[in-house]
Amino acid sequence: MLGFVILAVLGLAFLILPIFMRSGAEVLDTRGDSTSRWYRSRLAELEDDAADLDVREEIKAELGAILLAEMPDAQETKEAAGHLEGVYSEKDNGSKDAHALARKYLTTASLVLVALSTFVYSNLGEYRLPEIRGAEAVLELSMEADEADILSWQGLLENWLADNADDAKSWYLLGHSRLKLGNFSQAAEAFANTNALVENDISVKFYWLQSRYMANKGVLDATSKSLAEEILKVDPSNDSVLEILAIAAISEGESATAIKLLNQSLSGLRDPRRQVATIQTIVKLRETLSPQPQGISVEVSASAGVAAQVDKAATVFVVARPVGGGMPYAAVRRPAALMPFLVRIDDLVSMSDTRKLSSAENFEIMVRLSASGVAQAQTGDWVWRSRPFSGKEASIGAVQALLAPATGSD
């Protein structure tokens, strides 16, 4: 804005300057010019007059005296008065032309400068941008306490986007304002526009998915499922997306699919309450399965005398893998704070559809308590290993895994 004002003022200055220069010159010379014009006019009348030549010369002399009296600073003498007509009639044409050309250039330059500054500002300056400056506040506002502010920002963003439809950030903020106000269909439209302008932004895709999911009352259509798949390709442990897919699977009667998704979501969950709720949901869903899939139940607890040393913030990994180590067939993770607990290892928690526990010839169960919470083995982890099992023993019931401080890493 400041740049435009400076350019505009500069252009107007160039435009007005020649006018003031001309006006000033005219003011300074007004008196002399009017006197000289009057003198020349009277001389012209005398030339046309048929009066006696001597009389005319006498009148010229008197007029010259009057002219000298009106111009006291003039250096001409009375004898030079007779030559004044020639002096005033022979103006310096070159000087006049130079001044006229200079004024013309200044006027043209000023007009071009004003036009250019207006064009640049209107196209690049975003002169209405101050209207939505600070709209990021929408992300922090609460529907319960700040509804009026959200509505105000929503109106400003809608007006702005009417003329600036390619502003991805404003579409994103508008989507959040609509989402907070419960306008799910309109929010989905805003996030769809954002997604069209910004490629492969996971947060945009997530809020678009969430809006569509809410607008469709918990039903996932083809577009929503496609969005969920795109998100999981980049973030396989996105617990929110996995939970949405799991709920959709439950509503469709796909309990096995829901168990897989919920177990996968535990990798990304950090809230203990949500972890417990998710595990309880998995247990209830397993009870509905008939027949029960082939697998092994593992009871995990700490050895006597060391239970008090268990870090409640640690993570327990229960893995079915080839004997001696290798790529797991199946795996689950649970918070150490839940010990003792029971988990089921079967095809529903397989690492992939092409590598299932039921297809393994031999395997072992490895249980590891990790203070770091990472899947890779770390020094100081507590580790327990089972004896080898054949594939035919994958439904032997339950085994007990007693954890204790390790002497090395796995």
Q: What is the number of strand segments? A: 8
Please identify the structural class as seen in this structure.
alpha+beta
For the termini, the CA-CA separation is 65 Å
Low-confidence stretches: 24-29, 73-92, 124-128
Residue fraction in strands: 5-15%
The average pLDDT score comes to: 78
Global morphology = rod-shaped
**How many helices?**
12
The helix/strand order is HHHHHHHHHHHHEEEEEEEE
Largest sheet descriptor: 5 strands, antiparallel
Radius of gyration: 46 Å
Q: How many separate structural domains? A: 3
Percent in helix:
40-55%
Features:
3 domains, alpha+beta, Serine Threonine Protein Phosphatase 5, Tetratricopeptide repeat, 410 residues, three-stranded mixed sheet, five-stranded antiparallel sheet
3D structure, described in words:
- This protein has 410 residues and is α+β, with helices and mostly antiparallel strands.
- It folds into three domains: 2-124; 130-235, Tetratricopeptide repeat domain (Serine Threonine Protein Phosphatase 5, Tetratricopeptide repeat, Alpha Horseshoe), CATH 1.25.40; 295-403.
- It has twelve helices and eight strands.
- It has helices at 2-48, 53-70, 84-89, 93-124, 147-163, 168-180, 184-197, 202-215, 222-234, 239-251, 255-265, 272-287, and strands at residues 295-302, 315-321, 330-335, 341-346, 362-370, 382-385, 389-390, 397-403.
- The strands form two sheets. Strands 2, 3, 5, 6 and 7 form a five-stranded antiparallel sheet that branches. A three-stranded mixed sheet has the order 4-1-8, with no helix packed on it.
- A hairpin with an 8-residue loop joins strand 2 and strand 3 (330-335).
- Helix 1 (2-48) runs antiparallel to helix 2.
- The longest helix is centred in the N-terminal third of the chain and has 47 residues, at 2-48.
- It is rod-shaped.
- It starts with a helix and ends in a 7-residue tail after the last strand.
- The model is unreliable at 24-29, 73-92 and 124-128 (pLDDT under 50).
